[in-house]
Design a protein that fits this description.
heterodimer, A: mainly alpha, MetI-like fold, 12 helices, flat, B: 10 helices
Chain lengths: ~260, ~250
């Protein structure tokens, strides 16, 4: 973090004053009268963005653990499919994956009467299950690769010590291997989570109403271009900053081993 | 060949994907995508090189401005940046053209895509190149300085060749990001591979065929670039001790 003394250098004070003037100019001469009308929708959109982000990172991470583990130590019949999955996910654009799931599966499902009559059908007709699935798989693909490195970087002696104490394999994994692997890659995970945040606006293209699509609607309803986009950029920067801070706190809680 | 496809039940798909059918559109989209990716990657490299030098050797103000540039670009979603830069770019061009007495200008999609993605790539390239330049042993640059080499010549003969091996893995990643980010231009209505695919898919209702075909094309680009960058990295590391053998 930047200390107060560093901030108080002359050129930085000038820059901050200029920035404050810019903000003031934005507040006075740009149009903000649309905000009260769209505020409830925007809050709803913000909430959608956040829960989609949280659910897809959580589920994606759960998937990434077996993907990473099988690539690190698994037999070939598990590691080859895992590696193929990661390569495909990382080698194609997320937008294409989202559209493949939404338009592809979405046009395939109605052809089966037993799916239409099942209890899942009301959900499968909406857009968000496809959005969450696509984002989850994407996060899992990128994280699987990260976790592969993380699992193989844990010191062998740690695992041997655990084994020599007669620890069962699952306990060893839960208490020693996984925590150390996650601890090693926490900074990377933080970066990847911010990347995931930046991927969420893509789900607006399949009619999920999140914060980005609210700004698009303001633009198309009122023909105001810059104001909603600037505000949107600000919202994303704040969320990214909060994610960064949260991961910093996680990292600080870990004992320093250097 | 056709007989084999018929047996596999893929005859209809093959017909849809034939070059005279929608396959041609897909390939045109791919060409557009690659053109933009090349342009954006190049522009990003130029911005990144200046940015890295500015961050390392620039004055206080330059450094702070560059820090703001890289932080903001990396915290805001590409899709939002693309829209902002697209509108800003077209507004500026139109105002210039009106000031010069011309009418509104229709903006070339490829140029707009290159400008937008190039600015985004520049922020990431700045960080990659800055790290790589820092990894060059200072003794080498000092030796060049002590021979009285001018700054540009040091950059051309010492810094850039020496930093290549550190920069190539990061740049390879950036190139892959560039190829995948071209898909985002579909949202602003530019006819690159992903949008062509969606148009083909929605007019023929063969969603899986086209999306899988496009995915295959993207994957081929990724895999081929991986091979090319592996060779470039090997070339950039020539003369350096191999890391694998652990000799130093």
């Amino acid at each position: 973090m930047i200390s107060l003394k560093e901030l108080a250098q002359p050129h930085r004070i000038v820059m901050m004053v200029l920035f404050a003037l810019f903000v003031l100019w934005c507040a006075i001469s740009l149009r903000w009268d649309w905000i009260p009308k769209y505020a409830p929708l925007a809050l709803e959109g913000l909430w959608t963005t956040i829960w989609i982000l949280a659910v897809s990172t959580f589920l994606g991470f759960l998937l990434a653990i077996p993907l990473g583990l099988t690539q690190a130590i698994g037999p070939w019949y598990l590691s080859v499919p895992a590696r193929t999955f990661c390569t495909i996910i990382r080698g194609t654009p997320l937008l294409l994956q989202i559209w493949l799931l939404y338009y592809g599966l979405g046009s395939l499902f109605p052809q089966f009467p037993w799916i239409r009559s099942s209890e899942l059908w009301p959900y499968l007709r909406q857009a968000w299950p496809y959005a969450v699935t696509a984002l989850t798989l994407s996060y899992a693909g990128y994280e699987g690769e990260v976790m592969r490195g993380a699992f193989s970087s844990v010191a062998k002696g740690q695992l041997e010590a655990a084994k020599s104490f007669g620890m069962p394999r699952f306990t060893m994994f839960r208490r020693i291997w996984l925590p150390q692997a996650i601890g090693n890659v926490l900074p990377t995970l933080g970066g990847e989570t911010i990347l995931q945040l930046k991927a969420t606006p893509l789900v607006a293209t399949i009619t999920v109403v999140e914060i980005y699509s609210v700004s698009s609607r303001v633009r198309s309803d009122t023909f105001i271009v810059y104001e909603p986009l600037l505000l949107l950029a600000l919202v994303y920067m704040v969320i990214a900053g909060l994610i960064g801070l949260a991961f910093k706190r996680f990292e600080n809680r870990l004992p320093d081993r250097s | 060949m056709t007989g084999l496809l018929e047996i596999l039940g893929l005859g209809a798909s093959a017909e849809l994907l034939s070059l005279s059918g929608w396959g041609g559109n897909l390939l045109r989209g791919l060409a557009n995508s690659l053109q933009i990716a090349f342009g954006a990657f190049g522009l990003g490299l130029v911005i990144g090189l200046f940015g890295a030098y500015g961050k390392l050797y620039g004055g206080k103000v330059t450094r702070d401005l560059l820090a703001i540039y890289t932080t903001v670009i990396r915290a805001v979603p590409e899709l939002v940046l693309i829209l902002i830069l697209y509108y800003v770019g077209s507004d500026i061009i139109n105002q210039i053209s009106e000031a010069m007495g011309g009418g509104r200008v229709e903006i070339n999609g490829v140029a707009a895509g290159i400008w937008v993605l190039g600015v985004v790539q520049g922020a990431y390239a700045t960080e990659v190149l800055r790290g790589a330049i820092q990894a060059v042993p200072t003794g080498q640059i000092e030796a060049a300085k002590s021979y009285g080499m001018p700054a540009i010549m040091i950059m051309r003969r010492v810094t850039i060749p020496a930093m290549m091996s550190f920069a190539v893995p990061g740049l390879a990643n950036l190139w892959l990001i560039a190829t995948k980010d071209t898909a985002l231009l579909a949202v602003v209505g530019f006819n690159e591979l992903t949008l062509e695919t969606r148009q083909a898919a929605s007019s023929t209702r063969a969603y899986f065929t086209f999306f899988l075909a496009a995915g295959f094309l993207y994957l081929m680009v990724t895999l081929c670039s991986g091979a090319v960058f592996a060779r470039i990295e090997k070339w950039a590391r020539r003369g350096q001790p191999s890391l694998k053998e652990g000799s130093a």
